[in-house]
Structure of Starvation-inducible DNA-binding protein:
Amino acid sequence: MAKDKSGKADLATPNWHAQAREIQAFGTVTADLPHPLDQKVRTEMVKKLNQLLADSIALRDMYKKHHWQVGGPTFYQLHLLFDKHFEEQVDIVDTIAERIQLLGGVTVAMGGDVAEMTKVPRPPKGKEEVPVQISRLLEAHKIIIKECLDISEAADDAGDQGTNDLVVSDVLRPNELQSWFIGQHLVEMPLTFAV
């Protein structure tokens, strides 16, 4: 701690060089959590939920990328829709992360860790055409929807109704709805005349 001229501790100076060991390793769950689910079940659910979280973070960030980089005749509509879906994914990500913590686990959180874990293919840094942007988003949704179905079944088998409810109500259904909304932009429809 810093000291002033008289040798007393200077309490106004921040102590910002703190170092400490990790208090819980990633991939573990706390053993003595007052939760009725067995530690083995919680460990397995946390592992599955962290994968879902990594993929949801990747999808969330892809929505923001495409929001910034979209162009063409449907720019305005897609610019707003991509941002709306981004905000919805922010809530989904937070909900998944809170469930992981509630089960006594540690959430994946940093971009580099997410990039290592995600199953969602990484888009290029540059700008792409709208159909490619939408196709990438649909592929990411497909991955997440499949994970939700797998987690729901595993959670049901393990008696983890909380995780089952979360992945179906808070992740699966919004991802299905978002897929439908963006997928309709790939349906060939004339903009200015009827066929």
The mean pLDDT is 93.
